[in-house]
Amino acid sequence: MSSLSLPFYQKHHRHYDRDYRNTQLSSTMQEYRQEEKRSTATHSHRVRSKFSDEMLETSSGSPQMKRAKQDYYSKGKENEAVDYIVPVFRGCHEHFSGITSSKDERTKQSKSSHFAGESHSALSNTIEEHHIEKSAMHKSRKVAIRESAERISLNKEIYDTQDFHKRLREDSLLRLPEFIIKPRSHTVWEKQNVKLHCTVSGWPVPRVTWYKNNVSINVHTDPGKYIIDSKYGVHSLEINNCDFDDTAQYRASAMNAKGELSTFASVVVKRFKAEHGDLSFHPGRIAPPSYDYFPGDPHMKFEVHFVDKFNVSFGKEGDTLSLGCTVIVHPNLKRFQPEIQWWRNGIQLQPSKWVEMHWSGETATLTFTHLNKEDEGLYTIRVLTKSGYEVHSAYVFVRDADAEVAGAPGAPLDVYCLDANKDYVIVTWKQPAVDGGSSILGYFVDRCEVGTNHWVQCNDTPVKFARFPVTGLIEGRSYIFRVRAVNNVGISRPSRVSEPVAALDPADKARLKGIPLAPWTGQIIVTEEEPAEGVVPGQPTELAVTEATRNYVVLSWKPPGQRGHEGIMYYVEKCVAGTEDWQRVNPEIPVKSPRFALFDLAEGKSYRFRVRSANSAGISEPSEPTEFTEVTDKLDVPKAPSHVVPSRNTDTSMVVTWEESKDAKELVGYYIEASISGSGKWEPCNNKPVKGKRFICHGLQTGQLYKFRVRAVNAAGLSQFSHESEALEVKAALAAPPPPYGITVLESVRDSMVLGWKQPKFQGGADITGYFVDYREIIDGIPGKWKEANIKAITERAYRIHDLKENMVYQFQVRAINMAGVGLPSLPSEKFTCEEWTIAVPGPPHDVVYTEVRKNSLVLLWKAPIYSGRSEVTGYYADIREADADDEKWRSVNEKEISKRYIKVQGLKEGVKYVFRVRAVNRAGVGKPSDLTEPVTAETPPGTKEIAVNVDDDGVISLTFECADMAEGSKFIWSKNYEDLIDSSRVTMETKGGKTKIIFNDPGKDDLGIYSCVVTETDGVSSSYAIDEAELLRLLELSHEHKFPVVPLKSELAVELLEKGQVRFWLEAERLSPNGQCKFVFNDKEIKNDEKYKIKVDHKTGLVEMIMDKLEDINEGTYTVQLQDGKASNQSSLVLIGDVFKNLQKEAEFQRGEWLRKQGPHFVEYLKWEVNNDCSVLLKCKVANIKKETSIIWYKDDREIMFDEKHDFKDGVCTLLVQQFSKKDAGVYEIVLKDDRGRDSSTLRLLEKAFGDVISEVCRAAAQTATDLKVQSTEHGIRIYSFVTYYLDDLKIIWYHKDTKLASTDRVKSGVTGEQLWLQINEPTEKDKGQYTLELFDGKAGHKKSVELSGTVFDEAFAEFQRLKQAAIAEKNRARVIGGLPDVVTIQEGKSLNLTCNVWGEPVPTVSWLKNDRELLGDAHLILKFDSGKFASFTITDVRTTDSGKYSILVKNKYGTETGDFTVSVFIPEDEEVQVEQEKAAKKK
Fold first, then answer.
1. Do 758 and 742 touch, CB atoms closer than 8 A?
2. Nearest one of 884, 878, 794, 795 to 844, comparing CA atoms
3. Is 82 helix (H, G, I), strand (E, B) or coil?
4. What does the alpha-carbon distance between residue 774 and residue 811 come to, in Å, rounded to a whole number?
5. pLDDT tens for each residue of 1247-1262
6. Closest Cα to residue 315, out of 358, 354, 364, 363?
7. Distance from C-alpha of 881 to C-alpha of 915, rounded to nearest angstrom
8. Is the entire prediction scored with pTM above 0.90?
9. Can you tell me the distance from the alpha carbon of 1442 to that of 1448, in angstroms, rounded to the nearest whole number?
10. 1032, 1010 in Cβ contact below 8 A?
11. In terms of Cα–Cα distance, which of 1164, 1158, 1116, 1172 is closest to 1140?
12. Residue range 1195-1220, pLDDT digits in tens
């Protein structure tokens, strides 16, 4: 037997045969037990005992308990919440499909199981009795009985299973799935967890699928709810956080290649009924209505208010969108929170993967995680309380996502499945509103098995019908579906996937016969039918054609009453009309479901159909055939709707109504489209079909004219569009005005009172035509009935109510009226007493309002008080304080009283809220303050525009104002000085759309003032413009300019000379239209455009010019240009007479000559000189129009300057360099250019002043090259010197000592040696210290260099002077050899040698002679003499060869020593001859 694992509750059963498992599986089971202990939840023993006892007592008398078999007992290892006694149901009905065992084998198996059960029961009774006695001390009798009963049932199941497996052959390869341990039924409380276990054997290893009420469980649809696990051979389904909806039949289906087997278990979820004093329930839910949970007054009512409501929303497929609002419930009791429900199109929504709901206690939100067109509709939030419920609704529109291929249709929507069976399901959907501009050809249907991501296309060709039967499904598996639309351009995005659907036969549900008895206990009764095996099934019945189209035909029938246990299959046959030839449609693959779709039928032909049943025992007789069915579409496309009528709703929406399509079948709904009149572009108003014949189209543009059309939708397709509706402008429909507010008493006497109130902020789209006032008496705090104060509507917001009772307390309310009707009454006013006012000061001003609110200012307006006191009102004070400040913070806006009833409040702080009031003043003093204004924030509203002044081309002055936020019924109200414009003769008002203006008919001093404009039905849109005397004068001047316009000129008429000597007259206007005209006039005679006068006008630039070839004497006079451009004109004149004309004529002739000169080689820049940094002078000029043959010749004083090389015209520059410029270089320099085209010359005179300028510049350059002064010591004194690059005599040199000019003396001398400029100070003393300055004067300016000869500088220089002086003395007086000695003396032996030299030194030096560096002493052979201290002689009387050598004379005194060297060589004549002869003899040999 193969190794299998069992649930934990059988692992340690004492009757369990451990040989059933091998050692390897034992270790695996040990690991499984440890994991189970960690994951299971436990409860206290007290709770378990309490619940167990209660359930036993409740169930002991149940007749169902007598019939029910005992279930397995759990020791609480799986889930502690289940170890109490529950009604036990036989939820383990088995269903086989595929190949099964024979009838004899099953009968034998049944008997074997029965005998094994009896023997096991006898053995277990004895053991169980002992176990019960042993545990009696710890457990109650009821618990012990329950445990004993469950063990007996468990042991029987174990032995039955063992006996069954003993009969199996171990060598069999293929085995049917078999449940070794089946899941058992459970009853649990809400919010607890439950786990179902089972173990299965079979080969190949079976695949286990879990079902709830025969629908496959998908763990992904509700993450965390279900956990399906398969470990160590144990298959489990865990249901977390159970609720009442989890009460159901659960099926575990095991399937392999041999067949399929299923087993069932029931889960019952019960709701907990607590004690009255221990009531609790979940947040966001209200308690069941059977509990009186509200304390105190049983008539307590809850008021619900919605704040920050969600409005109409627009989204796109794939977006995230949230709807939310703040819910205020009064009274707010934490223990009794309201229930929040969300509805769409009347259907309550539940949280899912598409929508999320949140309730924080104050804010309710509904979030769409991924918008789809299915989410479009009317959304309603419903808040339920004990007092009832309140709702708020708004529509959500979802448009198609952008197509992946431009022009592709939108995605289909609302995909769901019908008539699901074992291998067949019908998929239906709705067509999209957008076809991409091309008709939809059909649809593709895709399927995907739940748990995978593999999509399979179900149809090869597109189907036009919005319903399609999908076949080829695998029984027991769950699928999801999607649909894609196709047109000529491409394929749409896929639709949202359908809900999962299981491929199951609906007959299986009927055979289960599961009937819940009580919804609160969730009892489920499951009965079993005795199998009828080995029986040929009967023929199917009630065969019918349920659907027929030109693409397919769907058949349905009822299964036969007589059928085998292993299930039946079907064969479908068809017969063409006019024949009796029956053909089997599915000969190879039998049909498992009593539904079948036939494809590939000939369109237009008629067919009959019949069905046969089949099982392993045989094939039944055919069913009764159907009637003839023609293959064609039975459902027609609906007809177009009619009578489309739009009507106004709001400023962005319209209500569209229509008459429904006639004779329409299976109508799905309607699509509405809108188009701006004249645009030709239609846009869908809804992307999900709507039913009925009325729809509100939102998102329209205010003020635009729209047309509408409608078409109907059913499964066959979309109808033609209806006729277009009449065009209608989008604007809000009229409504009654809202209530007035701010009721106050303005005056009170004994029998009457004057009331004042504030106008409603919005007027309902039409002007308020009047008001109605009601009043009622208040007696002892109890209000009476309302009475009408006026029957006819009053137009003013101040009204006196007569016939009141003195000292009676009254309340008032006011209603406004417009064209739409009478609005709601205001809230009752405060309580006022009707009594005489006797105060001397004025009463309160009324109708205090603010306008023109900006970030730092606003305008305050009010009306005079009704009660003026005992004297007339003379002025007013306006007061201000921050809205949240105390009354002590009131301050006056104006220091002095003002007589006007308006004031501009400035200096406000941006973002701060303020309130205002006004007080009136008379002779008696300051009166009562008015009511406070509404708090206002100092900020400039976005998009605020101001009144603009304009002066048009006709000089008309006007004020214009624009408003982009106008509502339906909004009007522009103009006023002057914040009062109505009474004298309409002075201005004319014009209004068009969102723009208005007033035109001043005859502007004058009577028009001075502040002009303001207010836009009604808006949030205070207003502005003003002040016209004072200065502004009026400016506007009048501007108006005059516009009435009598001139062509503005950038420049007046001017003249200039051109290159050829031509004369150009020109003028430039600021602007000149294409129609502008121009005239040139000379001496009152118009000049025409001819050869002499060339006139040109450039309208784009406004340039006007006239060119004259040559200026002659007859052209002297006055020139005028006249401009005419529409109404505007202008002229400009230029006078050319006298010297002005002659100078211009002369210049013109010169320009003409210059132009002729420039036709050949010429000078662009004439000859000029410049001095280089090295003090050389460079003569240069710039030439142009040079060619290779052009020659250049330099002259000085009419003598040609010769050059060795030809001049190079590099960069067009010719140069002559003069080095060391001096007076000899003065003269006249000339350069000549010439070739075959002409000749040009340039002359430079460097004489007199010009020469002096050059010399001065050379001197300046030389002076600038002077180095800084340096100090040098000499043997005679100190020398200060500087070097220049070039020195010439014209550069004057001046030396200064301490700002005193130095004169040349024997001791202080100056001079120039080469380029060195020096100052010699001989025998310096302390007086010579100080600053020395060298000034180089170039003839125009001096250039100075200074050095400080003092301090360390002087000391060091003086010390060096002393040293050099002593060194000079020493050098002068030191001993030295002056001359007389040869370098070499050659003498013959025997001769006498006499040498004499001069010696100098002071004192007289000593003289000594040396030979080979050894001192010689005089003797007879060597005579040494020194005479007169000057002459030293050296005499050898008889020269011998030994006298040869190096001799030196050494002179020495105290200042130094000097040596004179000479060499003496002695030779013998005879020896020389012998030597010569020997050399000759040697050569001969």
1. yes
2. 878
3. helix
4. 8
5. 888 888 888 888 888 8
6. 354
7. 6
8. no
9. 16
10. no
11. 1116
12. 988 888 887 676 766 778 888 888 88
